Amino acid sequence: MSDVIELTGVWRTYPGGVTAVRSVDLTVAYGELVAIVGPSGSGKSTMLHLIGTLDRPSQGSVRIDGYDVATLSDRQLSALRARRIGFVFQQFHLAPGRDAVANVADGLLYAGVARKEREWRAEAALVRVGLGDRLTHRPHQLSGGERQRVAIARAVAGDPAVLLADEPTGNLDSVSGAGVVELLRELNSAGTTVLVITHDHAIADGLPRQVPMRDGEVV
Q1: Which top CATH class is 3-212?
Q2: pTM for the full predicted model
Q3: CA separation for the pair 139, 99 (Å, rounded)
């Protein structure tokens, strides 16, 4: 099995007849680093939801890590997300009263990992993203770039098959943003499959593969 993501003839139409994604074919192999790039309204956020199994296609087939999304129950989809997909969002979504280790460890709750192992994996993930000296810091004690690194650590702590990063530099200054992109490159070099969803062509141009979208289609 060489492809972690396989979309075949995928459409997504919402109530009212709004088609956000139309006739998309896309494969992403294990170990790739890919940018899905396009302006607002191009369909890239819907692609994120389809690939992340947060939404189901109206037509076509979505296979993630070998699993056909259409054949899975909601419970099975939740388990697939918890164990095989890591998410990083523009908003960091960190709990303000929890330190970095706890924020990362909490991301493993739904994967059924025991508490001690959650903490061990969280610390290891934070060291991996360069925050070994910030383990007990809470979000308000961290810079924007550091908060995004905590969010990335949370996403990779469970060793997902694919990491989906949605506008990961959107809330960061240029220096912090460049650091986050470089971190994603390092994670990819170590074997993680990474998809970056972005409207920023400067970011996309620096990645090995681009999937441009416009009006719901891959162009």
Answers
A1: alpha beta
A2: 0.93
A3: 7
Rounded CA gap, 151 and 168, in Å?
Answer: 10
Question: What pLDDT was estimated at residue 109?
Answer: 87
Q: Which amino acid is at 211?
A: V
Q: Where are the domains of the chain?
A: 3-212
Per 3-state DSSP, the chain is made up of helix, strand and coil in percentages (nearest 5) of: 40, 25, 35
Query: Which SS3 state, helix, strand or coil, does residue 41 take?
Result: coil
**Gap between the Cα atoms of 53 and 85, Å rounded:** 9
Residue 187 CB-half CA count within 13 A: 33
Residue where the block lists tokens 């949370």: 154
Structure tokens given for 72: 């899975």
Start-end of H helices in the chain: 44-51, 74-84, 100-106, 115-128, 144-156, 174-189, 201-205
What is the Cα–Cα distance from 60 to 75, expressed in whole angstroms? 21
**Torsion angle (degrees, nearest 10) of CA 67, 210, 54, 17:** -110
C-alpha 158/C-alpha 17 separation (Å) is 38
How confident is the chain (219 residues) per 10-residue block, as mean pLDDT?
Answer: 91 94 97 96 94 96 95 94 92 95 93 91 96 97 96 94 94 92 93 95 94 96
Name the residue among 192, 128, 109, 122 with its Cα closest to residue 157: 122
In tens, the pLDDT along 1-24 reads 589 999 999 999 999 989 999 999
